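Training component of the fellowship. As part of building independent skills, the fellow (R.M.) carried out the full modelling exercise for a liganded target. The chosen ligand was adenosine-5'-triphosphate. The inputs are recorded below so that the supervisory panel can assess the work.
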Amino acid sequence: MNWHTKSIETVLAELNSSEAGLDNSAVEQKRAQFGWNLLQEKKKKPAWLLFLNQFNDFMILVLIAAAIISGIAGDLTDTIIILIIVLLNAIMGFVQEYRAEKAMDALSQLATPQATVIRNRKPEQLSSKEIVPGDLVVLEAGNLVPADMRLLEVHSLRIEESSLTGESIPIDKIHKPLEEADSSLGDRVNMAYKGTQVSAGRGVGIAVATGMQTEIGKIAGMLQTGDALTPLQKRMNEFGKKLSYLILLICVALFVVGLLRGEEPVSMLLVAISLAVAAIPEALPALITIALARGAKRLVAKNALIRKLPAVETLGSVTFICSDKTGTLTQNKMTVVETVPYNGKEEPNLPAGLLETCMAVNQDVKKAADNNWIGDPTEIALVEYIYKNKGEALYHQLQEILPRVAELPFDSDRKCMTTVHRWENQYLLISKGASESIAQRLEKSYDPGPWLQEASRMAKEGKRVIAYAYRLVDQLPEPFDYDQVETELHPAGMAGMIDPPREEVKDAIKACKTAGIQPVMITGDHPETAAAIAREIGLLEKDELVVNGRELAALTEAELDQKVERIKVYARVSPEQKLNIVQSLQRKHHFVAMTGDGVNDAPSLKSSNIGVAMGITGTDVSKEAAHMILLDDNFTTIVKAVKEGRRIYDNIRKFVKYIMTCNGAEIWTIFMAPLLGMPIPLLPIHILWINLVTDGLPGLALSAEKAEDDIMQRPPRRTDEGLFSEGTGYHIVWVGLLMAVVTLGTQAWAINTNHENWQTMVFTVLSLAQLGHVLAIRSDHTFIYKKGLFSNPSLAIAVVGTFIIQLGVIYLPFANKIFKTAPLSLQDLLICIGLAAIIFHAVELEKWIRNRYYRRK
Ligand code: ATP
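Fellow's submitted model of the complex:
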């Protein structure tokens, strides 16, 4: 359809809409006809395919093949049991993965953008999926365009369309019809397309296509991006590959040695393959994803919505949190507490004072259907002040006698905005903005000194200052741009407003500091306002620095790097400068979380290590660029998320430590037995059993482990730190070896004392050793007796449950047949438990030694 060549009236008529927007019945009828405004997502793998995928692993296939060979060779029970174990494994993997996927789906649902739509004459905030063709949609800087639209009204509207056309320079939009019918999308400048970004200005458009009928819908396939692996997963993958080769080598050696010793080839093959399957940590990367996805789900309950999964893992490494002031550290509940009118010259004769008039009409807030104001909280505060002090009637009268004819919208670089109003046969230009921005635009003859002093006085009291200036002209300036309009102004006055800090922020700042994280304030506000508030919340201390945007711009890269760790407040910075701050901190090897809400914040959000967007006040563009969204816009939430991130990482590390130690123990045991002249200690079933049951269940429960007591008292984890640092590598080796020694010792003793059931003892000791181990590694340095043996209920259930199942394997006659086990006497059972307890106490001893070592350090 050539909407771009049609007049606005024709478009409205063809879509059965009007300037009042659609009414409810029209919306319903169109919804029935066109459906929801959604892009079809990438086809999800159906559940059965997800299940089958669990078998799509080389080692599992080898195992199945081996089981079948062994069946053909005669031992059918082995075949069946191995197949059952493989099946159980697949079911467990499937359930985990399915739940993780569902959790991620629910999270992405939460992240759908909102849009302002005019229906029944009133603006409404809706989820953008509700838009139907014919809806009038308001576009503002920072929005993602929610549907294909023909523009009806534009005010300096610029749209960046690179997602559609590849052109990264924003396009100036118009509303007049175009002539050329078959122009390219990029040339249809009176249209706005779904998925593009409003980079400046304001506008209103009528939706002409939604969902898959939009231009981007037609090429939706191109948008689908794969999930990247997290740094941890990448490292795990690389490590896993190397380890696999090593294990395969060991298994081949084991097989050959076995043959030379005269073992039966088929059973030897099965042992070697089971060991390979059990010991190669092929499932670890997937398990890490699952742990991260579950972590993301828990984070959303704390109001932190994760957009990019790796963020869960990296949160724990944050060393600097650079936060906006307004709304994040403060409540964003602004109240005007002071006004300072100035006497202008040739004041228009208005029913209210000049400053009050400016406050009433220079704004973009609207009253919504529910009688609440929608718009920028700063402007709402200004308008509410007039509403309360001067009355509703006067407010409306001013809107009527000063109709707006043009505007230059606010942007955080200029820190200023202008509206133009018809006043009798003249035009009244009103600018408002930061005191210095307005001071620069005053007429040359005016001395801005006292003006700036007044602003500084208010700022020192922690007030946010908004300054006003005006000009009366006979004709609209030509061209209508910043240079021509915002110049030669006369002062009208200033308003000072307070925005109290959020109550919880003080504690959160303190928590950051004990956790080795530096909080930093970055704001567009006045340096004195910023410093006053920073001091109040404990963010700014004696020797720390406050730097403003101008000073920042004057610093060289090297100078900034030298100071950057001491600067706690950046004031009057433009969003572009945030990028310099991030980059400088990163050059100093810091791991930076950066908040942002505006469209210009996207680059700094993207390049920070964790970009944090605001869920309530943030623009769609900033949310798109962010790794994490704060659903409550609250600084405290970042600190909570960091804590949760540290916990999740800790638990993943414990989990990896647990699995690897166990695998190590199995390899040592089976590999060393023949070297010590003993028979192969375990059957394939035993190996697989230990891996799936004794290892799997308690291992999973480790992810429910609570945070360690000192989690926010220790410094952030270094990002270059491997998974095996801090003694984890040593632990895996020595505890694995110890388990093997205890197990082999049991084997030697039992064989020497003519225990018929020596293999059952070996199997039991190794299984129970895993349980002792998992209980002990729950904490890196708190003794478990102190922590409480059962303080993690899921783990307690897993351990007790596994113990009971193990007893079943030993004592139930049918299980004896399957597992080739034989009942143990009570005495032997107690011996096994006692031997396994050695592992538990050895790990506790390791903690004691480590604690002493760290204390000394
Ligand atoms: P933060 O970055 O912490 O959110 P901020 O919201 O104060 O800080 P900006 O929105 O860039 O940052 O505002 C910078 C300055 O611009 C403010 O201090 C104020 O003086 C002025 N200002 C803010 N909002 C408006 C507005 N709607 N119209 C005119 N001037 C404004």
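The panel noted the following from the submitted structure. The longest strand covers residues 148-160. Residues 227 and 683 are 40 Å apart (CA to CA).
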